[in-house]
Inverse folding.
C-alpha cells in the first residue's frame, strides 16, 4: 500500500465509511499492546476515553528487573562510579544483597544539592515491590 493509499484509507476510517462501520463499532476492534511483560500498577484511562500519542495511559512495571533510584550528596560523588558494587538492605523483609551502580545522572538538584544514581540488583526474593524502603552502603 502506497503512502497516498494509506492516507486515503485513514480518511475513510475518520469519515465513518470504512466497510459500513460506524466509528463506535470500529473502536471495538482497536487494541493497545504493551511493549513488554509486567504488572499494571497504574491505569489513567478507562473504556471510551480518547488517547493521544505520548499520553501515559497505563503504567507497567517489569517485576523481574527492579532498580533502586538513590540520591546522594554532591560531596560523595568522588566515592561512586558506574560499575561499583554496593550493599543493599531492605530491612522490612530482612533482605540483603549486592548491587551495581548502573547510572549516575550528571545533574545536581539545585535545591537539595543531590545527585541521582540508579542501582541494579538481583531480586532473589519475591517479596520485593516498587516503592519499598532500601538502605544502600557505598
Amino acid at each position: 500500500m502506497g503512502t497516498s493509499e494509506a492516507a486515503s484509507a485513514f480518511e475513510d476510517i475518520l469519515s465513518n465509511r470504512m466497510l459500513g462501520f460506524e466509528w463506535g463499532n470500529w473502536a471495538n476492534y482497536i487494541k493497545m499492546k504493551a511493549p513488554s511483560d509486567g504488572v499494571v500498577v497504574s491505569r489513567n484511562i478507562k473504556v471510551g476515553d480518547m488517547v493521544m500519542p505520548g499520553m501515559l495511559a497505563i503504567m507497567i512495571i517489569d517485576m523481574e528487573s527492579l532498580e533502586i533510584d538513590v540520591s546522594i550528596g554532591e560531596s560523595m560523588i568522588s566515592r561512586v562510579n558506574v560499575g561499583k558494587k554496593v550493599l543493599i538492605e531492605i530491612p522490612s523483609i530482612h533482605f540483603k544483597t549486592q548491587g551495581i551502580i548502573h547510572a549516575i545522572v550528571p545533574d545536581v538538584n539545585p535545591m537539595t544539592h543531590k545527585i541521582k544514581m540508579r542501582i541494579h540488583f538481583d531480586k532473589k526474593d519475591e517479596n520485593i515491590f516498587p516503592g519499598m524502603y532500601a538502605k544502600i552502603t557505598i
Q: What stands out?
A: The mean pLDDT is 82. The helical segments are 3-14, 23-26. The beta strands are 39-43, 58-61, 67-73, 85-90, 95-108, 114-121, 135-137.
